[in-house]
């Protein structure tokens, strides 16, 4: 079983982290990890979350996710205080092909694909792996986040 050709076209996008509020999460990532470039916060009612992306000096991107309401898919994560470091995400050229690759590796989808405001309406889908980690696929191979420095240089 070899996945190299399909997976080689995947591009790491972010690590998803569930937080109680974007403000508190952002403050932690700024003070503890020096994350100083941020996108504008977004509300995504279809996926039930408020979200914001931050990038550190090494180029690592974090997606902060807070529940939009009690029915949010991440609300239970906060209550249980488990899986707060929630998922890794990859931008891929073809969702059906990438999903088939993950299914061959015994990963299963958590739900059908949905559009995501954070990626300009592109399709996303989450998969749970056999080792109980979560992978997000984003059908937006050329997408780029719009980061802005939090603090302006003097």
Indicate the percent of residues in helices: 10-25%
How large, in whole angstroms, is the Cα Rg?
A: 16 Å
What's the domain count? 1
CATH level 4 superfamily? 2,3-Dihydroxybiphenyl 1,2-Dioxygenase, domain 1
- N-C termini distance: 54 Å
| Biggest pleated-sheet summary | 11 strands, mixed
**Got a strand count?**
11
CATH architecture: Roll
The backbone outline, from C-alpha atoms, is globular
Structural class label: alpha+beta
Strand content: 25-35%
Uncertain spans, ≥5 residues at pLDDT below 50? none
H/E element order: HEHEEEEHEHEEEEE
**What is the residue-mean pLDDT, rounded to a whole number?**
92
CATH class group: Alpha Beta
Describe the protein in words:
- It contains 4 helices and 11 strands.
- The termini are far apart.
- Strands 1, 2, 3, 4, 5, 6, 7, 8, 9, 10 and 11 form an 11-stranded mixed beta sheet that branches.
- The chain has helices at 4-7, 22-33, 75-80, 95-104; strands spanning 11-18, 37-38, 42-44, 49-55, 61-67, 85-91, 108-109, 114-116, 122-128, 134-138, 148-149.
- It is an alpha+beta fold and 154 residues long.
